[in-house]
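User: Can you predict the 3D structure for this chain?
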Amino acid sequence: MSFSDIVNNLDMDLSKVSYLELGSYKKHTFDRVRVSNKKCVDILPDFSPTFCMDTSSFFKINTDIYDIVFIDANHDLAHVVEDFNSSAKVCRKLIAIHDMYPPSKELTDTKFCSDSFKLLYHMFQNNFQFITLDGDYGLTLVFPPFREVDMGKVENVSYEDFLLANIKTYSIDDIISITNRRFTAGA
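Assistant: Here is the predicted structure, written as structure tokens:
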């Protein structure tokens, strides 16, 4: 299962949900999300993104608000923090970030998950409201209230220290159930 499965199993009228995907390489997730009002941003024109540009450029021209934002573009910490902060300003219900919990140190290489795990560690240390999937490279769902992250305060943490934090992870079924309870409670 993947993020599209989570979205498609939410107890909400998906015809009324707005969705933004940052980094839509090959549009695997984007095409499977059953939301009618959706947009994607990617620098690769081969896959026909809604906006063919980097995410920084997109947020400079964006005027829309979204219910759900999925961040899966550049996984280097500085880019993930920038995308999260920009998303926090335009998102109402849920920000999801892919590749936050690399299952091995080798996957912290910039061509894989990179060092975005440091943002997850920061969120854990600073009581952000989030849940992390026990697979799919630590897909993490962040709930409101969204707070911007000061890049200067993101912990300089090693992968080994990150693992020692023992950040709880959840099954896909638990993720869907928890997310639906949060949305129902907030309705």
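The chain has seven helices and eight strands. Residues 3-186 form a domain with the Rossmann fold fold (CATH 3.40.50.150).
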